[in-house]
Amino acid sequence: MNRAAPARPAAPDDTGATRLKLLESAGEVFSRKGFRDATIREICGLAGANIASVNYHFRDKHGLYTEVLRYADRCAVHIEASEPVAGDARRRLRQFIKAYIAAMLDVGRPSWHGRLIAREMMEPSPALDAIVAQIIRPRSRVLSDLVEELLGPAATERRVIRCKFSIIGQCLAYHSGRHIHKRLHPGFELSSKAADEIADHIADFSLAAIDALRAGHKPARRAARGRPGS
Amino acid sequence: MNRAAPARPAAPDDTGATRLKLLESAGEVFSRKGFRDATIREICGLAGANIASVNYHFRDKHGLYTEVLRYADRCAVHIEASEPVAGDARRRLRQFIKAYIAAMLDVGRPSWHGRLIAREMMEPSPALDAIVAQIIRPRSRVLSDLVEELLGPAATERRVIRCKFSIIGQCLAYHSGRHIHKRLHPGFELSSKAADEIADHIADFSLAAIDALRAGHKPARRAARGRPGS
Amino acid sequence: MNRAAPARPAAPDDTGATRLKLLESAGEVFSRKGFRDATIREICGLAGANIASVNYHFRDKHGLYTEVLRYADRCAVHIEASEPVAGDARRRLRQFIKAYIAAMLDVGRPSWHGRLIAREMMEPSPALDAIVAQIIRPRSRVLSDLVEELLGPAATERRVIRCKFSIIGQCLAYHSGRHIHKRLHPGFELSSKAADEIADHIADFSLAAIDALRAGHKPARRAARGRPGS
Amino acid sequence: MNRAAPARPAAPDDTGATRLKLLESAGEVFSRKGFRDATIREICGLAGANIASVNYHFRDKHGLYTEVLRYADRCAVHIEASEPVAGDARRRLRQFIKAYIAAMLDVGRPSWHGRLIAREMMEPSPALDAIVAQIIRPRSRVLSDLVEELLGPAATERRVIRCKFSIIGQCLAYHSGRHIHKRLHPGFELSSKAADEIADHIADFSLAAIDALRAGHKPARRAARGRPGS
DNA sequence: AATGAATGAGCCTTCATTCAT
DNA sequence: GATGAATGAAGGCTCATTCAT
Prior knowledge:
The structure is a homotetramer.
Chain A: H1 17-37, H2 40-47, H3 52-58, H4 61-81, H5 89-104, H6 112-122, H7 128-151, H8 157-176, H9 178-184, H10 195-216
Chain A binds a DNA duplex through residues 3, 6-8, 16, 18-19, 39-41, 49-57, 60-61.
């Protein structure tokens, strides 16, 4: 009743140096350690601010977290917007995957955005619903449309969803499996340099699979053999 | 469920009812909440043991965690061992995927084993190295061999690794993305009933893609400009 | 209600809308929650003022409290002054009790004045000395004079004080014991409607006792053995 | 779920040196400063115990407070029980008042019991209901019966309650008004020495008043005059 | 005359750990 | 072999206060 972001309720933005530094630091720490393991002390220390400033600007640790997610959302919008809509479906899918992989592998960016959302996906906070509605669902629709177009007559709702998950899963593997990857294949660095190559692999892999599903027209067990490749 | 290490009779000893109950309870709680969020109190409460018993039996919270992982490992061995080695590569790959998906979706089991390893993959503890060496690497080899065989002349080290990740990534997606899936597609339950169908989809998808890679000897049929592989 | 000190034109200045609203709000909150439980935030919120305004206008939370007491004092003067001086002692005592009970039971007023002083009586702040000197002692004198007159030849200093406390105590009971009263006798509301009846009871009760003390010249009519007074 | 007085749920008692010292210290501090102003640090410091011991033994600051009240209750029982039931009503009322005044003025006792209950009366915590039921209501009944007997035919429910409050109010005045008393009449010490004399005054005062009410048989305004004394 | 921003101290609570039996 | 009792460190939060404008 007598707190909340100090009388500036509707300005979701940036003005205020401390507030901004706090958001950045919190994004970094939350994405690295998760909500509970992140301590307000570390966040404030990183931002060079007093411990109580979190209470002042965001009321709460939860309030800070929520605001960090909204902040990440605002930053994410133009990444989305900058993607080209032109080209045929195959090309657009490849582009989509490239953008996704780039996000997963932290290619030239504040870098914690992707990690934070990945974290929410694995162990959701009450904020996940909003994230799904604002960030994930729109992108999911784009992907669904692409897959549906590529499947052509073979597209059923169920199959579109499965293919979508297959594509996203391949991308996510390079994020959530990065620690395993590092230990299993020390020679294959997951640097941003490899991003393009990885994305192409996933695109090739997925397009071939979808082609096969379309050609076979039945997802039957051995239907795939020989067809898609020729 | 809690059979003492069958092949390793002199294992660091599982006798002691309390000790064993502690391991089971800890596995359950650690897998559900992660290392830090799990409290010794809850674990002991679930096991009906004294708070100090963790210190007594395992010296430490970390000691308990390490021992839980080794305990899970011993239990995991025969799951691995029970997988069929017979059949051609296509069939064995499908079996592999079915087993993996079943583990991910907790099909009829005490079931914290899979969840715990999934957790370690995302935010590793010092114990991850041991897990990789003892549990993950062996399975990874099995999968590598399968993929290599299926790729035939098209198999390069790099490509085998990429395909392996594509397959594992699709499976993991149904675990790490389960919260998103539930929100995005409320109609499609991720129950154990769907496990078989999902596994078949992933097998079809992956086999088709691998076939295409093999046939084309170039990553994709009509690789949209830029030829990722070369 | 918030008329500036009428008889004291040069009083430490009440001009300034914010300052005045702050005093009113603080009186309300302090009287309801006590000094420490009252928060500056709530007071300022109620007054629609900035948090720092307390420091600006009153230097301190303590400064605000002191000033609130002085403000209440100024408001209290005419209540005191408006009491009738006419009539015989019995009637004047009854009037005194009615005024006191009305103050205790908050009969149709902004009403935090009485509550605030009651609070100071129970756990005094450094400001209590001033309150006693300026507010309480004058009224106490009035009551002493009445009791002395009523006791007549039986009046000793000690006995006058005791009777005075007996009268005040009965009145205070309806304030400090209100929560007990509510629980013990849910049927008997302590509303302002009952104020007059209660005051009459206390007056009857006390006058009868004083009469007896005077008549017997020994504390009680048939003082049960031991004669307390002698 | 996993806390509460350590597995000794039904033993409301003493064993445990630290636990007992904690109860005593808490009683002292709570009675002097009230629930919120009392700090766990001060209580533990006074008891020579660690800060966390409150959590261990009583789960909570609230839990400690509740237990302190129950502890005070147990101590209070024999005070109650030791009161004589013999004698006529006048004498029993005088005894009642003496006991009450002795409690108010802390005559030779752990000393915080009375203060604590007095505090609860003025600003109740959720525990007040229990206190009323277990401690206050029984005593209140005793007093009601005495007053009813003394009023004889003049006793109505309403009048009995009023007289009861008049008696209790006089006693409470010496507790809640002690700070005022000290400042107003520095000569009259409120030591335990004066307790007996004060109690006798209240008894004389109240008995005379009740006699008058009985004689007048109507509580009318001027009915008291001349009657009770003769 | 007044305020938004920031601060440091302190409180309650929780947790893993240890000690003595 | 096992446990009840006790502890110290740390975390989140609240509050009165101050600074710069």
